[in-house]
């Protein structure tokens, strides 16, 4: 598969891994059990912003990328976004801990694992090291309406929350 472009249908077989947030497991040291998240099915009838990045707890990702989405979540919701998800190659345990470290509760932002960067590789958007690249995709009821990859690893322009707000 090649990169997703506006007008494309989101693939029908995309499954990520994640640990659902729960109040009982809200402590950062608590481990839940990873489950499959069938993004194709879950997002078929929703407006979704998925932003991807090279790794949890890394400088640009932790200092700017995720905080920008947390800060702009109300504005994204006001524009009709049902789901905001962050995607990285880290395993579901690390992604869950990263969500907790950012005080994200419930389904405000889904912290999804792209094991072995399988999805990112399938669209040609893995980075040089074979990890999830930095990009953003907006899906509206199964159709891609925005899809941009950053021009460099530590650059945050087209995948930041503010760029998405301008585009939608």
TrEMBL record:
Q: Which GO terms describe its biological process?
A: cell redox homeostasis; cellular response to oxidative stress; hydrogen peroxide catabolic process
Question: What are the record's GO terms for cellular component?
Answer: mitochondrion; peroxisome
Residues annotated as domain Thioredoxin? 4-168
* Biological role stated in the UniProt entry: Thiol-specific peroxidase that catalyzes the reduction of hydrogen peroxide and organic hydroperoxides to water and alcohols, respectively. Plays a role in cell protection against oxidative stress by detoxifying peroxides.
Spell out the family assignment given in the record's similarity comment: Belongs to the peroxiredoxin family. Prx5 subfamily.
Please list the GO terms describing molecular function. Answer: thioredoxin peroxidase activity
* PANTHER family the record matches: PEROXIREDOXIN, PEROXIREDOXIN PRXA-RELATED
What are the alphabetically sorted keywords of the record?
Antioxidant, Oxidoreductase, Peroxidase, Redox-active center
**Designated name of the protein:** Thioredoxin peroxidase
Active site residues of this protein: 61 (cysteine sulfenic acid (-soh) intermediate)
* CDD domains per UniProt: PRX5_like
Q: What is the lineage of its organism?
A: Eukaryota, Fungi, Dikarya, Ascomycota, Pezizomycotina
